[in-house]
Specification:
Elements (H helix, E strand, L loop, with lengths): L3 E7 L2 E6 L2 E6 L3 H11 L3 E6 L8 H13 L2 E3 L4 H20 L10 H21 L5 E5 L6 H8 L4 E5 L7 H4 L5 H8 L4 E4 L2 H15 L3 E2 L2 E4 L2 E7 L6 H8 L2 H14 L3 E8 L6 H14 L7 E8 L6 H21 L7 E5 L4 H10 L2 E4 L8 H9 L6 E5 L12 E3 L4 H12 L3 H17 L2 H25 L3 H13 L3 E6 L18 H12 L3 E6 L4 H8 L5 E4 L4 E3 L7 E2 L8 H14 L4 E4 L3 E5 L5 H22 L1 E6 L2 E6 L4 H11 L4 E6 L2 H9 L5 E5 L8 E3 L2 H12 L4
Parallel strand pairs: 1-4, 1-6, 4-5, 6-7, 7-8, 8-11, 12-13, 12-15, 13-14, 15-16, 16-17, 18-19, 18-27, 19-20, 27-28, 28-29
Antiparallel strand pairs: 2-3, 9-10, 10-11, 20-21, 21-22, 23-24, 24-26, 25-26
Helix pairs in contact: 3-4, 4-5, 9-14, 10-13, 11-12, 11-15, 13-14, 18-25, 19-25, 21-22, 23-24
The chain binds GDP-alpha-D-glucose.
GDP-alpha-D-glucose (GDG) binds next to helix 1, strand 12, strand 13, helix 13 and helix 14.
């Protein structure tokens, strides 16, 4: 494998200018701290903004670049104005509130969207500069959601992974974004898209289905001729760094110092960036109520509130800061006493050893975000509890709650919930604390940040290999040329062509898929070519096929092989003796499912019944389809029927009838020196399997198949058929 190019808005190193000198300092934040140990152990280059203005002098930029390169970092220079518009506005006041379920705070401005596009393009240019064949690109977070698609357009066949560190919201919120389609398309440029939880991944898949109509199967989305995989990778922490630091003498000293200050008091701790998503005001309110309801804890309890300054230039954050200041003042004023301040409030970033010492001394960590992609502080607190004591209280709306089932989880909007959880935590027997901690620590130690990153990269590689395997089966230019040549050199040619999904795309109502003139002309030309026999192999009823294609010199197979009509004949033939009495028993069952599933309906053919759910909500449809198949299974064995689940349909028909069996009729009739079959679903698999080895078989859509080749869409089928008619070179 080549290098790993990690791309994020900020580099793990930030450059400051102090008194004319450049200073290089580690960046704050979960991503930078979490991944910095991993990337140093890997053959990696980290690409991002170092905090330096693009308008700075060439000499400064050269110096920054040179120094950063020594640390395997590569700078993307953005101007302050760009950063203000792209980060300060689009990222902070559009994406951030909307994705954290604060739509009322989201603003939508065309100019900041343009800045976002342009910043993504600047990142793209920087990556194109350094990318080499074999490098893998891993893009991080909501600042760069357009980047994967931009890169795919500029680089030859790159492997691209994307990880979103914040929640992906439900479609009901995501659809509010004016540029939702662009964002989804941008992300789909990736081979692998990772989220912290399956809930977020599910929301993304629902948005893809809603906006672009692409379905997914086991987290795989087929978009055009590529597959994007979506999966959950709950980000871990550098466990040993916290557990190891917690026993260091300097931390012991800090803990002793804290002990002297707090004396025997119990300590509750919270650590957050200043942000309305973190639920700081609600937490303070609940803490005030706790003191009121539990006077026995007055004088005996201290709440250490660490708030790290953030986005201070945004008005909403400045306001929040004032509100926190006021509320802390009010609670301390109301409950405090000489020698006891209920809330210790620190509005600053604390040095790492002090942070770990606080984790170690706190009896309870009170982490109550309104929404949080993951929340690493919760995990860090647990890792630092080397003494086997301590209780974590965590909002159920933090991604971390999905993994930390042994924490006390609360609904942040319910003050009583927080008050009760605090009491529960403070009174929890030590044995229970140790047991809960032990289970969570074991999990965090195993799936640490290193494992998380490796897991992501391994899955990305597997997806990329899958893409390659698909590529091998995908009908490429050379194979297509060979096919066309074979066709042109042959004298007796037999072509089996499915209709829906193969010559035209699917539409919501089957009767609307009237063949376009282009398809009719194409079939007419192919069918009139001397030596050609065209067989339309459809699931449709014979009347529809006669209406649409009756005037063309083509043969037809209707109802997936029930009826055959060789060209030039007057009558349809039935494939064998079939019965239809069973329909009276089966129809009411299908109708029941049609009533229970909005948008679905029952289609009746001579010898089959079909429940169609293409227009239904796809999750509900799939659930009902499974139920229906189970429901029908017992019944149909007695009646000699088969139940088949297809592309948004469940079909019931007589056993032993299929397109493959029908196709034999033409194979037996005469010798052919060129046979081609193209189809898009399971009903065509019988045809592929029934044809001789020499036949060309092609499945539309990038799914596994008995056909020799895949082709991505019906448009490509039409292009291929047009090519067949072109004169030989
Ligand atoms: C995103 C998502 C997701 C905080 N205060 C101090 C300090 N910190 C360190 C913590 C922790 C990190 O900052 C904050 O972690 P978060 O999990 O809150 O993450 P964010 O970077 O804000 O943001 C979040 C995360 O990405 C990872 O995917 O969990 O949901 O919003 O590591 O220790 N460090 C020091 N002093 C402090 O005062 N030294």
């Amino acid at each position: 494998m080549g290098r790993l190019l990690i791309v994020s808005n900020r580099l793990p190193v930030t450059v400051h200018r102090k008194r004319g000198q450049l200073h290089f300092e580690p960046s704050a934040g979960g991503l930078a701290t979490g991944l910095s140990s991993f990337y140093r152990s890997y053959n990696a280059l980290w690409i991002g903004w170092p905090g330096v203005d693009r308008k700075d002098s060439v000499a400064t930029k050269d110096e920054v670049k040179e120094k950063l390169l020594k640390d395997n970092c590569y700078p993307v220079f953005l101007s302050q104005k760009e950063v203000d518009e792209y980060y300060g506005k689009f990222c902070s006041t559009t994406i951030w509130p909307l994705f954290h379920y604060f739509p009322q705070y989201a603003s939508y401005s065309q100019s900041s969207w343009h800045a976002y596009e342009s910043a993504n393009r600047t990142f793209c240019d920087a990556i194109v500069e350094v990318w080499e064949q074999g490098d893998t690109i891993w893009v991080h977070d909501f600042h760069l959601m357009l980047l994967p698609q931009m890169l795919r357009e500029r680089l030859p066949d790159p492997t691209i992974g994307f990880f979103l560190h914040i929640p992906f919201p439900s479609i009901e919120l995501f659809r509010l974004l004016p540029w939702r389609t662009e964002i989804v398309n941008g992300l789909l440029g990736s081979d692998l898209i990772g989220f912290h939880t399956w809930e977020y991944a599910g929301h993304f898949l629902a948005s893809v289905r809603f906006l672009l109509g692409y379905d997914s199967w086991m987290g795989k989305i087929v978009a055009g001729d590529r597959i994007s995989r979506v999966d959950a990778f709950p980000m871990g922490i550098d466990y040993e760094r916290f557990a190891g630091t917690a026993i260091k003498p300097e931390v012991e000293k800090e803990v002793d110092k804290l002990d002297r200050s707090f004396k025997d008091r119990r300590v509750v701790l919270s650590v957050d960036r200043l942000d309305y998503t973190k639920g700081i005001l609600r937490r303070l309110q609940a803490f005030g109520q706790f003191l009121e309801k539990n006077p026995q804890y007055r004088q005996n309890l201290t709440f250490v509130l660490v708030v790290v300054p953030s986005r201070t230039m945004v008005a909403r954050y400045a306001l929040l800061k004032r509100q926190i200041d006021e509320m802390v003042g009010a609670i301390n004023g109301k409950h405090g006493a000489i020698g006891w301040t209920p809330i210790w409030y620190m509005y600053r970033s604390v040095p790492f050893p002090s942070l770990v010492a606080l984790y170690r001394r706190a009896d309870v960590a009170l982490i109550t975000p309104v929404r949080d992609g993951m929340n690493l502080v919760a995990k860090e607190y647990l890792a630092s509890r080397i003494d086997g004591r301590g209780v974590l209280i965590l909002s159920e709306t933090a991604g971390a709650a999905k993994e930390l089932g042994e924490a006390l989880t609360i609904n942040v909007n319910n003050d009583d919930d927080i008050v009760n959880a605090l009491k529960h935590a403070l009174e929890m027997p030590e044995g229970e604390q140790a047991e809960r901690l032990r289970i969570m620590q074991r999990r965090l130690r195993r799936y640490n940040v290193q494992r998380w990153a490796e897991d992501f990269i391994e899955t990305l590689m597997a997806t990329s290999r899958l893409q390659e395997d698909m590529g091998v089966k995908t009908l490429g230019t050379q194979t297509r040329r060979k096919l066309v040549k074979c066709y042109q050199q042959a004298h007796r040619r037999l072509l089996f062509l499915d209709y829906d999904g193969t010559l035209v795309s699917f539409v919501s109502r089957p009767e609307k898929a009237v063949p376009p003139q282009e398809v009719l002309d194409l079939l007419s030309t192919l069918a009139s070519e001397p030596g050609n026999e065209i067989v339309l192999t459809s699931g449709r009823d014979k009347e529809t096929l006669d209406n649409w294609f009756g005037h063309l010199p083509v043969s037809k197979i209707a109802e997936h092989g029930v009826w055959l009509r060789p060209r030039g004949t007057e009558q349809w033939e039935m494939i064998g003796p079939l019965t239809a009495e069973w329909k009276d028993e089966v129809r009411p069952i299908l109708e029941l499912y049609a009533d229970r599933t909005p948008g679905s309906f029952v289609e009746e053919k001579d010898f089959s019944l079909v429940w169609q759910y293409r227009r239904s909500d796809s999750r509900l449809g799939e659930l009902r389809a499974r139920e229906l198949v189970l429901h029908l299974e017992g019944l149909t064995t007695n009646l000699d029927l088969q139940v088949l689940e297809g592309n948004k349909v469940v079909e019931v028909k007589n056993s032993g009838v299929n397109k493959g069996r029908a196709a034999l009729r033409w194979l037996a009739a005469e010798e052919h020196d060129f046979i081609l079959a193209i189809g898009d679903d399971w009903t065509d698999e019988d045809t592929f399997k029934g044809l001789p080895d020499s036949a060309w078989t092609i499945r539309v859509g990038l799914t596994s198949t008995a056909a020799k080749y895949n082709i991505s869409s019906h448009n490509k089928v039409l292009a291929l058929l047009h090519e067949l008619q072109a004169p030989e070179d």
